[in-house]
Amino acid sequence: MSPAEELRQFGQGTILIVEDEEALRRPASKILRKAGYTVIEAGDGNTALELIRARQKRISVLLLDITLPAHRAVRFSRKPNASDLT
């Protein structure tokens, strides 16, 4: 079994990556998708909040850039309803 096939065995759930630098966001998304995860990308906090509110299915993991220009990470992590993230 190849390493990519092994990773796909474990990849379950949806991950939201919030990162304003595309050079970081794209490779992370690619790796996680190859591992079998469903990945949603947002380039800023406002877009991420819209995606969370519009999302009908569960977001399992939120990967958040703690230095987002428009949102402090702590404030952002409190803004969505807990039920949106579980």
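[next item in queue]
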Amino acid sequence: MPTESDVFVRVAIAYHSAMNGALRSLAKIEQYLQPDCTILLAADEKERIRRLSSRPLQSHDERLETNAHFLIRVDQEFRAYNLEVIDTTKLGIDAVVAEVLLRIRRRSSMGAL
């Protein structure tokens, strides 16, 4: 049976490890329930900034989400998990959803789910 999991633990560890690398050694992601499939939706810096500027920011977002150096470290933390990555830079919402579903179906047909 496929595992459904929120990304909260992985996001919290990635963001906090980017703030303070010492957390990485304390937070062992393997000790938590692991989803069967985790996909990282990524976009290049220019597109990320365009998307962020089109939505209202929360006060905590302004400090974190506009700091390019910090976000590069967060991206490195996420990529260290060896996740499947979908580059959404040139994709609309419908295309992203279609690609996510395709990858889930592909993994399911291979018996990975």
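[queue empty]
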